[in-house]
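Backbones bend. We report:
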Amino acid sequence: MSDTPPPRRGLGSDGPEVSAIGYGAMGLSGVYGAADDAESERLLNELLDLGVNFLDTADVYGDGHNEKLISGPLRERRDEVVLATKFGANKETGGGKPEYVRQAVEASLSRLGTEHIDLYYLHRLDRTTPIEDTVGAMAELVAEGKIGHIGLSEISAATLRRAHAVHPISAVQQEYSLFTRDLEAEVLPAIRELGASLVAYSPLGRGVLTGAFNAVSDVENLEVRKQRYPRFQEESLQRNIELTRPLRERADELGITPAQLALAWLLAQGEEILPIPGSRRIERVRANIQAANVQLSPELVAELSDQFPPGAAAGDRYHPEGMARLDR
């Protein structure tokens, strides 16, 4: 499959056009294993060369390292990038307070070396601060030109509607994949109702849906993953690897990778879906991008949906403390 640039989709109802496959940069800050900054910067530049213009980071990734890393390509190519970052995940309480919102955006702007963030997310709901207050402070940043659009992450449908009543929400970032489909019940309908985009993180089940793992022993940096994600505990992981067998078989029949098939299924769920897979290996990045040009029949989309019903994956998405931070 040639390096055909991915098609573009609108970000929300009035946002810029972004590549249908974006890039989640978290893994470039050592989350899943060591990463070389020089190699990472080359990868980011190649992404832009390949037509990916939607880059996603956060202040908490590497405690600011990720934003500083992205500042390299931004210096020369800022006008090629629709830049998204997040705040508020590294504060136990107070991450959504208006005064902290302003403090956080100024810090991110400094690390990124830019005067403007295209899409700014509240990373996790601050239960000590009404969402109306947080979004009100973000709306002030829009008016001042510091940010272009407002996003929320891991938010309930009810909270999304309350936030949208204060200022239009352009994007909601949630985990969404063949392994994680619970948002289809309430959150995704609300996103569609309000004209927002759904930015799908971990669209490949943190690597399991790529088909790269045939056994538990194949997983890089397993101990770190086990500490964060119950789906990587040995028993659950083995069950989840087995779940991918029909995906791998179908991908082989089609002459594409399991990752491409999983991403194409996501894109087929609607024009508002924007997956942001992340990989440190350029060959995998190239393959992921080409998933945006894979057309699946409605019958195959339905077949995959039946094979991976909501709740099929073994294990929770996060350990209890992480699950407690999700707005559900």
In short: The CA atoms of residues 151 and 290 lie 26 Å apart. The chain has one domain: 8-323. Residues 98-112 form the longest helix (15 residues). Residues 8-323 form a domain with the TIM Barrel fold (CATH 3.20.20.100).
